[in-house]
Amino acid sequence: MPLPLILGVGAAIAGAVGIAKGVKSVSNNNEARDLNERAEDIYEEARLELEEAKEETTETLAELGELKLRTWDEQIGRFVEVVGKIQHVQVQGAAAVDGNRQAALTENDIMEMRQLSLKAGEVVAGGIQSLGAGALAGVASYGGALMFASASTGTAITALSGVAATNATLAWFGGGSLAAGGLGMAGGAAVLGGIVAGPAIALGGFLMESKSKKNLAEAKATLAKAKQAAEEFRTATSMLEAICDIAEQYIEAIEEMAPRMTAILDRVEYELTQAEAARNQKFGFKVKQFFFGLIGKKVALSYNDLTDQQKHVLQLAYQMAQVTKILLETPILDKQGALDENAAEMLDNAMLLINGE
Predict the structure, then answer these.
(1) Range among 7-21, 139-153, 255-269 with highest mean pLDDT value
(2) How far apart, in whole angstroms, are the C-alpha atoms of residue 188 and residue 194?
(3) CA dihedral for 84, 90, 91, 97, sign (positive or negative)
(4) Which segment, 16-25, 124-133, 170-179, is predicted with the most confidence on average?
(5) What 3-state class would DSSP assign to 343?
(6) Is residue 126 within a helix (H) or strand (E), and if so which, with residue range?
(7) CA pair distance 323, 327, nearest whole angstrom
(8) pTM summary value
(9) How far is CA 262 from CA 65, 76, 201, 253, 265, in A?
(10) Whose CA is closest to 85, among 238, 271, 209?
(11) Cβ distance 254 to 71 under 8 Å?
C-alpha cells in the first residue's frame, strides 16, 4: 500500500478511536489535564515550526525551480545558439574537463543542452506558475536530463508534474494538510529522510482519550508520545532547513553566473562578427564561397578562422556554460527524498571551475 494512503488510514483510525473514547468519558483529572495540556503545547510548537520550515523551503525551491527553467531557456539557449554558428570547435583548457577532470561539453552534450533549453522554453511559454509548488520543487531538485526524461514536444509541463508525483517529498511540498487530502505535517515528517511519524499522526486521538480519563498513567504516556512526536518534527525541520540552505546557495550561484554568461556571450558574438568579416576578405574564402553559392550553400565559420584571442574568448564561454550546466543539473534531493550528499560538493566544484582553481 502506498505510504500516503497508509498514513491517511492510520490518521483516520486514530481519530475515530480518540473521539469514541472521548464521548464515553464524563470527568477529567486535573493533574492529567495539566499533563495533556503540556503535551499539546509541546506537540503544537514543534508542528508549527515544521509548518514554517515547510513553507519557507517550498518558497525557496519554487524560486530555484523557476530560476533553473529561465536559465535553461535564456542562458543555455543562447549559448547553444551562439556556438552553433562555429564548426569544428576544439574545447581546450579548463573548459575541456569537469570537476572530476573528465571530458565535458562534447558535441552530444551540446545537443542535449539544446534539447533541454527548448523544453524549458516550452514550460516558460506555457506559464511557469501554472506548474504548482510540487512540480517547481521537482525542477529545483533535479533540473536536468532526469527531469525531462519523459518529456517530448508539447508535454513538458506534464512531465514536470510527474517528477513531483514520483517523489513523496516533492509531492508533500506541493500538497496540503491532512484535512485537505494532502500528506500534512506528519506525512511530511515520515517522508523526509525515512523518519517514522506514526506516533505523531496518532497523537491527536490519544490526546482526547487522555483528557477525558481519570488516569494519570495515560496522561504521562500521552506526554511521552507528544515528546516523541515533537522530536520527529524537529528532525524533519532540521532537514528542511538544510534543504532550504543548499537551495539558497544554488540560487545565489546561478544568479552570480547569469551576468557573467551574458557578458561573455556578448563578447563571443562580437568576436565572431569580427572573425567572419576578416575571413570574408581572404581570396581563398571568396573562391570557396563562389562554388558553395552555386549549390545554394554558405560557408560556415570554422574554429580555425578565429584568432588565438577569439578562441580564448570562446573557451571562456564554454567554461562558463559548463559551470552553469553543473549548477542546473546537480540533484539537491536523492531518490528517497532526502538531501543529496553530493549537492554541496558539486556546488564547491562549480565555484572552483569558474574561479579558475
Answers:
(1) 255-269
(2) 10
(3) positive
(4) 124-133
(5) helix
(6) helix 107-126
(7) 6
(8) 0.79
(9) 20, 10, 50, 15, 5
(10) 271
(11) yes
